[in-house]
Design brief:
The complex is a heterodimer. Chain A is mainly α. Chain A has a single domain, classed as ACP-like (Non-ribosomal Peptide Synthetase Peptidyl Carrier Protein, Chain A, Orthogonal Bundle). Chain A is built from 4 helices and no strands. Chain B is of the alpha/beta class. Chain B has one domain: 3-Layer(aba) Sandwich (Rossmann fold), CATH 3.40.50. Chain B is built from 9 helices and 7 strands; from the N terminus they run βαβαβαβαβααβαααβ. In chain B, strands 3-2-1-4-5-6-7 form a 7-stranded parallel beta sheet, sandwiched between helices. In chain B, α1 crosses α9, α3 packs parallel to α4 and α4 runs parallel beside α6. Chain B is globular and about 45 Å long. Classes of the chains: A mainly alpha, B alpha/beta.
Chain lengths: 75, 249
Amino acid sequence: MQLEQLFSDALGIPVEQVSDVLSYQGIPQWDSVAHMGLIAHLEDHYGILLDTDDIIDMSSVAKAREILKKNGVEL
Amino acid sequence: MSGLLQGKKVLITGASRGIGLAIARQFAAQGAALWLNGRDDIEIARVAEAMHADFGVSCLPLCFDVAEPKAVKQAFQRLFTETRQLDVLVNNAGILDDALIGMVQQQQIERTFSTNSYSTLYCSQYAARLMQRAGGGSVINMTSIIGRVGNSGQAVYAGSKAAVIGITQSLAKELAASQIRVNAIAPGFIDTDMAHSIPEEKFAERVASIAMGRIGTPDEVAKVALFLASDLSSYVTGQVIGVDGGMVI
């Protein structure tokens, strides 16, 4: 599954709305509560457990891509 | 096998002896699958093996220092990779290092707070994330009667255990909506290595201060932990339960 689709599912927004520039708290649907749900969704899908610094750092789709790669995920 | 904790996956820190070991045995007897933490890899592996042999439950050793954030992260990553589930966390690991305030060293303060207080936050952070996605869980933090009322010569220990109470009450409020219950146990004078590390006359003095007239057993603390871990306490959160036989300090 594409990263964009995972964001779309977790945040409840159309996949067309997901791009690299989409940012944390940039839309009402991506608030702090949704952020933790998004993290769980990504972790479950990729089978990884992110550390707290990465969770705080994940401020955009582009940043998420970078962090996931750093944690060994092939995108 | 059936029991109060059948199907539950549990992590207990500081499980190689004393109260932690008693909790592990109580939980295993009730069907829980256990991850047991200790700092000595050989010792905790031996304990886990014995637990599996005695109770027939899954019991895995997880050797790490709870005071080290990186080690905590690695431990939870392993737990996540292997089980993807955590229902109960018992933050039990702790140290006691008494000194009069004028004799307290900075290193002692840092070590005590890291092991007794910061570790509770580190472990709870990861545990809460795993429990949230499973729809709930129970976190049990070990504080102390000393953390509630203080004691001469124990300012550092008391401070570290009082912090655990604040953490418990705050996390209980923050995590209640996720159906994660967070409670603390405040043991009094319990028959552990820690209790026997104090001088003989102090030991007798402590026993004399207990209304029930005797030292408590680790098993008596473990039974309260079992209550808090199980659905018997399904509507209990943010509580600090004393297990002290009516001790007065």
